[in-house]
């Protein structure tokens, strides 16, 4: 072999370990893929781009993703790449039981192995509904190929009887109105068709929009990814540009780990505070950091984010919706406002720094996106609470809470699980008033299982009728990003893992002090030890994914990933299949 000639060859692409082989295996890899009509020269060593698609009719928020993928393909072809779209498990927040979160890690395994096992040089992740974003990010991070994120975009504003109604947030509000006798079921049913009237994901700053914003803040998408509505043709243009860019990223070998640095995560945490983002982002970013090998702790959320003001007046904390947010300038405008708090040199997928991307980002509406000096809410980031009720931490979103309840001492009204809660909360004789603290157990990662979004427990109807709209609520559950209230979440360790939450009884006094970051159960250590001796762990699931999950899921403060999925295995080429 002529060595001098060998050294002039371009580096072999990963996909060429399949398509470039001059033997029986190469025949098989090429010949079968040609049954879709691809010309031979598409297999000549150009970047092969996997388009990882979470399309499903059972995930309505991602129902337009086959169309979106076609725009990505345009861009890939234009830039000289070869796009191949593939499906992965799709997680729809509104249909999937017992909770989509139970399957986030399962979907991430699907993503990881689909990428690694196939002839792919770079990846476009099509993400939308809540859990589809972290699942794809986590799986791709464990492979660490050049990867770019593309979110599906939010729905247009909900419109009901002349006013805007927001995904989720409007449901929580109107269902309480029905329970309080202020709205008829007929009106409630009419609102269903009015709330979700276009393609896209929830148009409040719920988990989907939060995670789309996190993708952009981390530098993993092109600018403006967070807010362009799904129905706006500029979303398709972004998809096409994303397709063009991933081909370049493969040529530059711009891998995920070059983007997902500690600085990128710090930028995301601060941005989450500035947008009043979902508490779910805490869990997802901790898990993602674990996959890419960046040290990140629950405490980092409080330390980096809690003093950052919320600048956007968006539901669930405020008035407006994602469509308004986009027209006002979207995430680049917010990040520009907090640029003094960001690592501006952080590299993003377009090859430019974050600082370059946001340097001249305009704001068109100061009602929707406030200036840093006149924030919508001061010190609005996630607060991390500790105390004998949450030795490993619990979280609260002060921007969604009632100021008068942020320091509160009250009598516990305890529910053993969500069925117990639903059976008793509407009972007029339930011994509860607005000073009480509602405590819900067994809704954590292992307990539910999957850590359901039930932490924003509905209030007793007799209090709603008296005009009470908020109470302190504590659980090991999560809360929908579209929800609000003085709700303490993610209590760790959870009840089902024997955390102190399991030991709370009716009548115990609980002290919440958010400014002091304290969550205290006023019961002596001796009494808690006596109660612990009586405690029985729940029966574990017997088979299948539930069993694997419950045996291996980590607690919320670690991101609720499976213990054996933390870290990555790279994108090494597996051995031949035949
Ligand atoms: Fe899918 Fe909200 S339910 S994004
Ligand atoms: Mg949700």
Automatic annotation (TrEMBL):
Domain Dihydroxy-acid/6-phosphogluconate dehydratase C-terminal positions: 367-560
Domain Dihydroxy-acid/6-phosphogluconate dehydratase N-terminal, chain residue ranges per copy: 46-357
GO molecular function: dihydroxy-acid dehydratase activity; iron-sulfur cluster binding; metal ion binding
Naturally occurring in which organism (per UniProt): Caldimonas thermodepolymerans
One matching Pfam family: ILVD_EDD_N
Record key words, sorted: Iron, Iron-sulfur, Lyase, Metal-binding
NCBIfam families: PRK06131.1, PRK13016.1, PRK13017.1
Protein name (Swiss-Prot/TrEMBL): Dihydroxy-acid dehydratase
Keyword Aminoacyl-tRNA synthetase: no
Keyword match Iron-sulfur: yes
Top-level taxon: Bacteria
Classification lineage: Bacteria, Pseudomonadati, Pseudomonadota, Betaproteobacteria, Burkholderiales
């Amino acid at each position: 072999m002529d060595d001098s000639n060998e050294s002039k060859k371009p580096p072999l692409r990963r996909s060429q370990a399949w398509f470039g082989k001059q033997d029986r295996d190469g025949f098989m890899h090429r010949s079968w893929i040609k049954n879709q009509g691809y010309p031979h020269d598409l297999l000549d060593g150009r970047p092969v781009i996997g388009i990882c698609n979470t399309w499903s009719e059972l995930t309505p928020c991602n129902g337009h993703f086959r169309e979106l993928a076609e725009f990505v393909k345009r861009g890939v072809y234009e830039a000289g790449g070869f796009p191949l779209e593939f499906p992965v498990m799709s997680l729809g927040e509104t249909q999937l039981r017992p909770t989509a979160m139970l399957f986030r890690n399962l979907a991430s395994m699907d993503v990881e192995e689909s990428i690694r096992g196939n002839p792919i040089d770079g990846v476009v992740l099509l993400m939308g509904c809540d859990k589809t974003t972290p699942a794809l990010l986590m799986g791709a991070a464990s492979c660490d190929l050049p990867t770019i994120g593309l979110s599906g975009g939010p729905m247009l504003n909900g419109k009901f009887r002349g006013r805007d109604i927001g995904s989720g947030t409007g449901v929580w509000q109107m269902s309480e109105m029905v329970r309080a006798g202020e709205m008829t079921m007929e009106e409630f049913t009419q609102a269903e068709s009015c709330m979700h009237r276009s393609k896209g994901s929830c148009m409040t700053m719920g988990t989907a929009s939060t995670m789309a914003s996190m993708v952009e803040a981390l530098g993993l998408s092109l600018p403006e990814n967070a807010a362009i509505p799904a129905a706006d043709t500029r979303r398709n243009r972004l998809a096409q540009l994303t397709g063009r860019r991933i081909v370049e990223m493969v040529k530059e070998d711009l891998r995920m780990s070059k983007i997902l640095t500690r600085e990128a995560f710090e930028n995301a945490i601060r941005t989450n505070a500035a947008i009043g983002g979902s508490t779910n982002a805490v869990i997802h970013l901790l898990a993602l950091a674990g996959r890419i090998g960046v040290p990140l702790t629950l405490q980092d959320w409080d330390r980096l984010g809690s003093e950052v003001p919320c600048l956007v007046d968006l539901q669930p904390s405020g008035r407006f919706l994602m469509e308004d947010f986009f027209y006002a300038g979207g995430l680049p405008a917010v990040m520009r406002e907090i640029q003094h708090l960001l690592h501006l040199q952080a590299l993003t997928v377009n090859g430019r720094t974050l600082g370059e991307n946001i340097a001249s980002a305009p704001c068109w509406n100061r009602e929707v996106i406030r200036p840093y000096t006149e924030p919508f809410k001061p010190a609005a980031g996630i607060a991390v609470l500790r105390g004998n009720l949450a030795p490993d931490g619990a979280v609260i979103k002060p921007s969604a809470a009632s100021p008068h309840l942020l320091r509160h001492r009250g009598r516990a009204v305890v529910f053993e699980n969500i069925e117990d809660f639903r059976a008793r909360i509407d009972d007029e004789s339930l011994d509860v008033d607005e000073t009480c603290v509602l405590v819900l157990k067994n809704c954590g990662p292992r307990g539910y299982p999957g850590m359901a979004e039930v932490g924003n427990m509905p209030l007793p109807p007799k209090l709603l009728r008296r005009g009470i709209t908020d109470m302190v609520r504590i659980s090991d559950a999560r809360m929908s990003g579209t929800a609000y209230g003085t709700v303490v979440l993610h209590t760790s360790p959870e009840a089902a893992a024997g955390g102190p939450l399991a030991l709370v009884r009716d009548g115990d006094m609980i002290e919440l002090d958010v400014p002091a970051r304290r969550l205290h159960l006023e019961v002596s250590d001796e009494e808690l030890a006596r109660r612990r001796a009586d405690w029985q762990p729940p029966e574990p699931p017997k088979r299948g994914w539930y069993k694997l999950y419950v045996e291996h899921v980590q607690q919320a403060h670690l991101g609720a990933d499976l213990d054996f999925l933390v870290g990555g295995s790279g994108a090494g080429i597996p051995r031949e299949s035949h």
